[in-house]
Design the sequence.
C-alpha cells in the first residue's frame, strides 16, 4: 500500500517547482521585516525555516498564504504569479493549507465541524462527504473519539493535530506550518511531529518555520536560515547543521546548542 | 462571628432585618410620613389610577403600560436592525465606504451625547412643524418610537462593535487561510462568537429602553403609563398614580434584569468548564 493511499488527501503532483519566492520585501511601518527573500520549493520537498524570533520566518509564511501583502518582489505558485493584483487571493488560499502556532481552532464549533467548515462552505463539498473524509482523517491520526468535542476539551497537542487535519481537509497543494509546536508543553510536541512526519512521507510539499532543530535535521529536504529578514544560508540539513559556512549561522546554532534545543 | 454555613445564613438574615427595619422605621417615623403616605401610597388612589375611569377624566395606568410594551417591542426590533447596519459600516475597511463611515461616527457621537428627552421633543414637535408630506403627519406614538430608535441605535451599535472586536484577529486569519470568503467567515466564524459577548450588554440596554419608553409622555398625546399617571395626579391631586407606574415598570424590568444575570452566570460557568 502506497503512502498516498494511506493519506488520500495528499495530491499526486508532478515533479517541478511548487513555489518560487522572488525578491520579496515586507515592512510593517518602519519595521523592515523581509529584505529581499529568494526561495524555491519543489513538489514533495520539505523546507525548514530556522532563525531567531523576529527573523521573518512567520511573516514569510503569511505572505505566501496572502495573509499579508508584500511590498516588492513576487511569489509564483505552480507557475502563477499569486501576488499579481488581479489574482483572486481566496482561490489561492484554497490551495494552501496553513497551520498556526496557537492552533486558532474555532472555539464555538465542534472538532468535526471545525474540519468540515471550509470544505462545505468554501469548496461546496456535500456535508456527508466532507464529514466522512474528516472522520477518516481523525481516525487516521487517532482522534476519532474527539469528533463531537469542543476544542477547549482537547489538549494542546490534540488541538494542533486537529488544526493540521483542518488544513488538510481542503486538499492543499502546499502546507505552511508556522512554529506549530512552539505553544505546546514539551511532552505533547512528539505527537504533533509524528503527524508532520507522516505528511512528509506521504509526499506533501511543506514549508515549516520551526525551533525543533532535531526534527528539522530529520525531516527537511533543505534547511533555510534567516536572520534580520534575509536568507543567510541554505542547504541540506547535514551540511547546514554540521558544517555551516556563514559565521552568523554558526553563532545561531551555537546559541541553540547552549540552550539545549539540539 | 459564627463561621459555619448556618452561621452565615443567620448573620445575613439578621443584618438584612436590621437594614430593612431601619429604612422602614425612618420612613414611618419621619415627621412628614403621614402626608407622604397619603399622597404617594394611598391604596384607594393607587387602585383607581391602575383601573382608570374615563368618566372622571383619567386613564388607566395599567392600560398605559401596554402602550409602553408596544413601543418597547417595536423599538427593540428596529434598534437591533439599525444598530447592526451602523456597526457594520463602522467596522468596514473599504475606502469606498469612507463617507458612510464618517456619517456613522457622527451619528453615534450625536445621539449618545444628546439627552433622550431632547431627542423626543425635537422629533415629536419638530417633524410635524415641518409640514412635510408623510413625515409630518404621523402619530405621536410613531414619533416617540422613532426618537427611541434613533437614540438607542447609537448605543446598541457600540455594543455590537465591541462584540465584533472581541473576536481575536487570529480567528479571522485562520478563516481566511482556509479560503473562506469574508462574508462566509463573518457568518460562520466571527458572528457566532461575537453574539456570545453581545447578549448580556444588549439585554442591559434593553432594560433601560423598557423604562425610557416612559419619557415619550412629554409628547402628551401618547397615553402610556407615565402619562396616565400624570393625568391622574393632575385630576385628583394625588401622586399615587406615579407609584403604580413605578411598580409596573419594576415588574417589567426586574425579570429582564434577572434573566440577564442568569445568562451572564451561565456564560461564565461554561467558560470555566471549558465548554462554549
Sequence:
Amino acid at each position: 500500500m502506497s503512502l498516498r493511499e494511506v493519506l488520500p488527501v495528499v495530491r499526486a503532483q508532478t515533479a517541478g517547482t511548487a513555489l518560487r519566492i522572488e525578491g520579496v520585501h515586507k515592512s510593517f511601518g518602519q519595521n523592515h521585516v523581509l529584505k529581499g527573500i529568494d526561495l524555491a520549493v519543489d513538489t514533495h520537498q520539505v523546507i525548514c525555516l530556522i532563525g531567531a524570533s523576529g527573523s521573518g520566518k512567520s511573516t514569510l509564511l503569511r505572505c505566501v498564504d496572502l495573509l499579508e501583502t508584500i511590498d516588492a518582489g513576487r511569489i509564483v505558485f505552480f507557475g502563477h504569479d499569486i501576488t499579481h493584483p488581479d489574482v483572486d487571493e481566496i482561490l489561492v488560499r484554497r490551495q494552501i493549507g496553513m497551520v498556526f502556532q496557537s492552533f486558532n481552532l474555532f472555539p464555538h464549533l465542534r472538532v468535526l465541524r471545525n474540519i468540515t467548515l471550509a470544505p462545505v462552505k468554501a469548496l461546496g463539498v456535500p456535508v456527508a462527504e466532507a464529514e466522512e473524509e474528516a472522520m477518516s482523517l481523525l481516525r487516521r491520526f487517532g482522534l476519532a473519539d474527539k469528533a463531537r468535542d469542543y476544542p477547549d476539551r482537547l489538549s494542546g497537542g490534540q488541538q494542533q493535530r486537529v488544526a493540521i487535519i483542518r488544513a488538510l481537509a481542503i486538499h492543499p497543494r502546499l502546507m505552511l506550518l508556522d512554529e506549530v509546536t512552539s505553544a505546546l508543553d514539551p511532552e505533547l510536541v512528539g505527537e504533533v511531529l509524528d503527524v508532520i512526519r507522516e505528511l512528509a512521507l506521504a509526499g506533501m510539499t511543506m514549508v515549516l518555520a520551526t525551533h525543533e532543530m532535531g526534527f528539522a535535521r530529520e525531516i527537511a529536504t533543505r534547511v533555510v536560515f534567516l536572520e534580520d529578514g534575509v536568507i543567510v544560508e541554505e542547504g541540506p540539513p547535514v551540511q547546514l547543521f554540521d558544517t555551516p559556512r556563514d559565521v552568523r549561522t554558526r553563532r545561531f546554532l551555537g546559541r541553540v546548542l547552549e540552550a539545549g534545543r539540539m | 462571628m459564627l463561621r459555619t454555613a448556618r452561621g452565615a445564613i443567620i448573620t445575613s438574615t439578621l443584618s438584612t432585618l436590621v437594614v430593612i427595619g431601619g429604612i422602614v422605621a425612618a420612613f414611618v417615623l419621619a415627621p412628614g410620613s403621614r402626608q407622604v403616605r397619603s399622597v404617594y401610597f394611598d391604596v384607594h388612589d393607587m387602585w383607581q389610577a391602575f383601573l382608570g375611569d374615563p368618566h372622571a377624566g383619567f386613564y388607566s395606568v395599567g392600560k398605559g403600560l401596554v402602550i409602553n410594551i408596544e413601543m418597547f417591542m417595536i423599538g427593540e426590533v428596529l434598534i437591533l436592525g439599525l444598530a447592526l447596519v451602523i456597526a457594520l459600516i463602522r467596522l468596514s475597511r473599504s475606502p469606498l465606504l469612507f463617507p458612510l463611515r464618517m456619517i456613522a461616527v457622527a451619528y453615534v457621537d450625536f445621539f449618545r451625547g444628546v439627552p433622550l428627552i431632547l431627542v423626543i421633543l425635537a422629533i415629536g414637535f419638530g417633524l410635524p412643524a415641518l409640514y412635510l408630506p408623510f413625515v409630518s403627519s404621523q402619530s405621536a406614538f410613531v414619533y416617540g418610537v422613532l426618537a427611541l430608535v434613533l437614540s438607542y441605535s447609537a448605543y446598541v451599535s457600540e455594543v455590537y462593535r465591541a462584540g465584533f472586536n472581541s473576536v481575536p484577529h487570529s480567528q479571522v486569519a485562520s478563516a481566511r487561510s482556509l479560503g473562506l470568503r469574508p462574508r462566509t467567515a463573518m457568518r460562520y466564524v466571527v458572528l457566532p462568537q461575537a453574539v456570545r459577548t453581545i447578549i448580556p450588554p444588549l439585554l442591559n440596554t434593553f432594560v433601560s429602553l423598557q423604562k425610557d419608553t416612559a419619557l415619550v409622555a412629554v409628547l402628551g398625546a401618547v397615553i402610556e403609563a407615565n402619562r396616565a399617571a400624570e393625568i391622574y395626579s393632575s385630576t385628583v391631586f394625588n401622586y399615587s398614580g406615579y407609584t403604580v407606574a413605578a411598580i409596573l415598570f419594576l415588574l417589567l424590568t426586574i425579570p429582564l434584569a434577572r434573566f440577564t444575570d442568569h445568562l451572564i452566570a451561565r456564560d461564565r460557568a461554561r467558560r470555566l468548564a471549558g465548554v462554549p
Remarks:
- The longest helix of chain B spans residues 240-273.
- Chain B touches chain A at residues 170-171, 173-181, 184, 188-189, 192-193, 196, 274-276 (CB under 8 Å).
- The radius of gyration of chain B is 24 Å.
